Amino acid sequence: MPCPEASPHGASGISHFTPHRQVAVTEPGSPQRQLKLFMIAGENSGDIHGSNMLRALKRLYPNLSAVGLGGPQLQAAGMELRTNMVKNLAIIGIAGVIKNFWTIRRIFLDTENYLKEHRPDAIILIDYAGFNIRMAERAKRLGIPVIWYVSPQIWAWHKERIHTLARVVDLMIVIFPFEVGLYRAKNVHVEHVGHPLFDVITIDQTKEEVYATFGFDTKRPLITIVPGSRKREVQDFLRIMLQGARRYHEWHPNTQFAVIRATTIEPEMIEGFIERENLPFEVKVVDKLRYNLRQHADFSWVKSGTSTLEAAILGAPHLIVYKVNFLTWAIGKHLFTISFIGLPNIVAGSLIVPELLQDEFTPMNLAETTAFYLEDKEEYQRMAADLKRVKDTLGGPGASEKAARAILDMLGVTPVAQPESAV
User: Fold this and answer.
1) What CATH code is assigned to 10-194+398-422?
2) How far apart are CA 197 and CA 107, in angstroms?
3) How far is CA 17 from the centre of its chain?
4) Residues ≥6 apart with Cβ < 8 Å to 275
5) What phi and psi values does residue 275 have, to the nearest 5 degrees?
6) Looking at CB atoms within 10 Å, which of 6, 176, 235, 412 has the fewest?
7) What confidence tens digit (pLDDT) does each residue in 63-84 have?
């Protein structure tokens, strides 16, 4: 299903937004008014993107403080962390919400009370729709400007949420160009900044260099396994992926394998799964130079989510996997409004990367699909070319700074630092 098209005018044609509460404008050379922000990120990707945006904010406007819910990346960027949501509440599906209901409610009410007492200049919500939409409603009632960075995927499911977002969000900062038209149609002040992954992904080694770092043979095929950043995902997916590696290795015994470990997953957890499978070949765990290795690998098995867009930006041919419990899948099928779940496919508007979902996510299908692409050079090159087209639509570096400038502009303050490119 094709993605909605953005306006040909881009983000520049959006009307200027007037804040609900007037914030003193800082003239060059005058003392800075302190800005106090409250931020919420509930997942690893939001924690990373939020931290880069916060660093840009502090560089552009040093007299700024941030408090909120998030993870270690936001904390390292200078946010006072009230609750580590990334570690404790990166929830998958309805069952996860039910299981953690009372913890979620306690954190929600505690956050609402904090907002009432401290009245920050704005609340910045990063993805994490289920929790953040309700928090946006409470902040709106309190008269606190609501800024959203990384739009909820309303174009994929829960499309009706756009009406709530239009009512409560003062500035929506989007990362996909087709999202602009959706919000503009509802008179939401929207800015497109490009994808923040370009600010995260760096490639600084050749294939020979990164293979030598980990002891891989450049003359042998390499498949990387990317099981996700949530413990639940690793528990549910890695066993199947390792069994797929066993099956593929039976057919192609010259193949090398590596599991890419997210920083949110303990090494012992990955190593435990590998040991229990008792594989007759080595599977290495990689937790550094991840992007270098993924770009130079021959193929990847990637859990649906941000990691699939990473693969697109890297130009790395891959397949996408995902599986949830029956209840979540049964309900989700009725809420999902597009034909794919993989982000490269959604951006492309067609199935350019194979998806193995639910019962199709099996060791045999992993092995057979991989063999198809690695043995058919024409299909392999087609996927690589399609991924490059996806990358080209996502923009380029600088999303974090563009988002920071949009936030300062909405709050009516003038940046005092030079752009990063000029420093």
Assistant:
1) 3.40.50.2000
2) 29
3) 27
4) none
5) -65, -40
6) 235
7) 999 999 999 999 999 999 999 9
